[in-house]
Amino acid sequence: MKTKTLLSIKFLTLFSFIFLLNSCTDLNEVFLDEIPGNTVSDPAGSLAAAYDRLGDGTFVDHGAIFAMQEYTTDEAILPTRGSDWGDGGKWRDMHEFTWSSTNSIIVGNWDLLTNGITRCITAIQSAEQSAIPEKKLYAAEAKALMAFYTYTTLDLYAQAPYKDPMDTKATLQILKADTQIDKLITDVEALIPDLADIGTQRTYQGRFTKQAAYAFLANMYLNRAVFKDRYNASSNFNFNEPAVTGSTGTDMDRVIYYTSLLIDSGKFSLESDFFKNFARDNNNGKELIFAISQKIDYIRNGSNSFAYVCMERNQRASAANRGTNAACITPEFYASWDGNHDDPRFEQHYQYADGTWFMNDGTDVSVPATDIVPKSSPALPWFHFNRGIQAGLQYGPILLASGSLEMVGNRIKVSPLFMEKSTGTRMNFTPSLTFADPTKSVFAQNEINQGARVFKYEFDPEGGNGNSNVDIPLFRLGGIYAMRAEAYFRKGSAGLAMIDLNKLRTSRKRESLYGNAPGKALTALDSDQLYKELGFELYWELQRRPQSIRFGKFDLAGTAKAASQPFRRAFPIPQTVIDQKVFKQNQGYN
């Protein structure tokens, strides 16, 4: 239930929660040298604050971890659109690989992740020094979360700060990805006995359970070879190195082991409607293993960023909502779907209760106004856009000068849409991107319509553009099948890999407009097709950069991107951190 927030956080007073958030250390200034002691007496509050860092921008805002994991790849781009999205070039830097140690996205995400580590240290202290019945559970969750923040920091920056939570005199340590990955794996494996099974001890997908640990371990094993040899010039990573735990096979065997625990557990099942995984009522989603629980309430109003960032400003879910016309997918990623547009994961039309389908093809005249934005007063009609990848001419409601949507009788009128900031330019989401200078992702004002958009996450109109009830999956069953398929493939078992990929394809069903047809099964599989399949299942889920590095795609030239050097597989340590003379800069950035 959405009311079941982290550790039943509403049992805490609002004052206590705000105090916890405001008291956490800024690691950009002190690198874990000052751990706040005033929250140690409140284990639940300290752990809640550690969880809150996941959803307070870090993993739910397009400008945070998403920007580094998606905009840097062959999947996504945020170009400068005329007078919008220049912002000192920080967005273009991500896709053009021109970032430096002063880029505000790189600096900001370092601060978010290391602040998460700090909060976890406080939560570990608080649990370990308490006598509460949940002592072992809370400590295990805090340690697992700390490993998750640390792993993400090492993935992106190749280094991370560490300080022993229980040693007040401990000195700061600088962890390195190539040597720390094995320790992270063994640490998380050791926590499993003390973590709860999902659904027990008041846990759910928003808590770090045994099942979240299995998914996390599978992910770490899948990427272990990259961590250990990140700058390998030929991207010839050793994915079949003996596993950390000795006599238990290779890294890929461990990926298969942990993913199979989840697949065979009976606790999760694939959604036949792929887009249910990303709907505003997905809190009880059948695939969610570990997710960021979002709710529009007085504590944290959730983030609509992953939906809002692609919608155009004249696309309106209600008279009080709009998009922002920022990100789009690349021509390369759109082309990867060639011959597969009937895949249920590519696009889905919305059907209203009276049977009306929104076709978005120029044939729509009107849709019912019977759907109402939740908690709106006065009641606002709710217009539903289609889901998935949206390309071509766009249609929808028009906002009148009166502040209401244009109506036809008691129905919402559907009209051709034009760009808000280029009023003579038709809203045409072209899959191609035609930059005047192919090396720079800059559009003239009359070109700001370009780029196919991702409407994977449901746009939640409740509470304004920025708020959302959509839980953000970090690990879900579809991704678990994808990981196992990749592990099978890397072990030379293409047939077993294809079985898992076809499970994903054929378990998904199209809408009834197309007879609930399942996706089509693959008949052959090679490395390039596997890479496409990972994109089909996991696009817009902060997974593309690690995928592209594993498959040797990250360094390649593409739209508005020249071929790059292996040092770009890690981001620089922020200059503000280097200036404190504790960390040394990553290779290639000096």
UniProtKB/TrEMBL annotation:
<keyword id="KW-0998">Cell outer membrane</keyword>
<dbReference type="InterPro" id="IPR012944">
    <property type="entry name" value="SusD_RagB_dom"/>
</dbReference>
<dbReference type="Pfam" id="PF07980">
    <property type="entry name" value="SusD_RagB"/>
</dbReference>
<feature type="domain" description="RagB/SusD">
    <location>
        <begin position="287"/>
        <end position="561"/>
    </location>
</feature>
<protein>
    <submittedName>
        <fullName>RagB/SusD family nutrient uptake outer membrane protein</fullName>
    </submittedName>
</protein>
<keyword id="KW-0732">Signal</keyword>
<dbReference type="Pfam" id="PF14322">
    <property type="entry name" value="SusD-like_3"/>
</dbReference>
<comment type="similarity">
    <text>Belongs to the SusD family.</text>
</comment>
<feature type="signal peptide">
    <location>
        <begin position="1"/>
        <end position="23"/>
    </location>
</feature>
<keyword id="KW-0472">Membrane</keyword>
<dbReference type="InterPro" id="IPR011990">
    <property type="entry name" value="TPR-like_helical_dom_sf"/>
</dbReference>
<feature type="domain" description="SusD-like N-terminal">
    <location>
        <begin position="98"/>
        <end position="222"/>
    </location>
</feature>
<dbReference type="InterPro" id="IPR033985">
    <property type="entry name" value="SusD-like_N"/>
</dbReference>
